[in-house]
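Let us practice reading a record.
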Amino acid sequence: MSALPAGWTLSASAFNLTPEVVRAEHTAPDLALTLVERGLASAIEVELGQLWRGYPDATLDEARALRDRLDGVGGRVSIVGISIDEWDGHRRRTDDERLAFLVPQLRTSAALGAHCVRIPLGQAGAILERTLPLLEELDLVLYEEAQGHQTPAAVPGAYALLAEIDSPRIRLLLDISMLMPALPVTYLEELARGGVDDTLVALLTDHWREPETHGAVIDYLRAGKVPGPVHTLYMNLLVRFGRSDIADVTSVLPLLGAVHLKFWDLDDSDDRLSDPLRDVGTALAATGFTGTLCSEWGGQEWLDDDPWEMTSRHLALAAALLSDRPPSASLQRASTP
């Protein structure tokens, strides 16, 4: 049996358990721990704003406690999701205030035992390079995460800044939501149930990557035709779902330190799930990549599936494809009717 390439680590995101966090029958730290306790992964990603009510202020004792609990079951935090709240009431924060907003998050992440944090691509902007001294002090790497439509062609300045800084402490995280050959079957079904026009649903189904499809999506939105119950869901077409090919991001792969293996459901019709995994695996192997590849489930927005089962099955599929082993037939079947 083949193994993952040396230096590659599969991990799981506690974000996958968001429905359980919202249900509040267990605390967010307790839920994050279950990913290790149930044997899904030994390395996990966490969202700092989801773990504790004290966000963004330092929760160092709580962080150390969770680190110790994870260590006790053979687990660790790989990457911590952090962010900047750009507004203080009705006033936009200054760059100094934005940096100050990040500092306690970086310290808490280090207390968790993480070696990496991530922030949305371009959000730090002018303060990105100013984080370097603290990153050095805390032995952290900061990843800027690119997803959806954020290709190098779409936001060249953000990638140029990463290249200009050229520090091993500030790298790129690629979310493979950028590389979707087709839309999730269950998502299309949800749009149809929500009342989106059949003609548009058919266009999204059969011609997702075509330029005219993007234009049709915008026209439909501007015309006020999107039904209220699926309006938020519809916006994924403009923000979270990408239509690029691996060739569109090849130029920035040398900046890469981590990958989000984003998935929405487990329906692999026409290899819509498998192809991006294969493509990114081949590209990473060619660049000598080392780092984490994290299973992140975005379909919780419209699906009620068990998040642990979804994550477990996706990790098994990813492990098979990334190690060049053919996945079993059971892994390729849809998880939802």
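A brief commentary: The radius of gyration is 20 Å.
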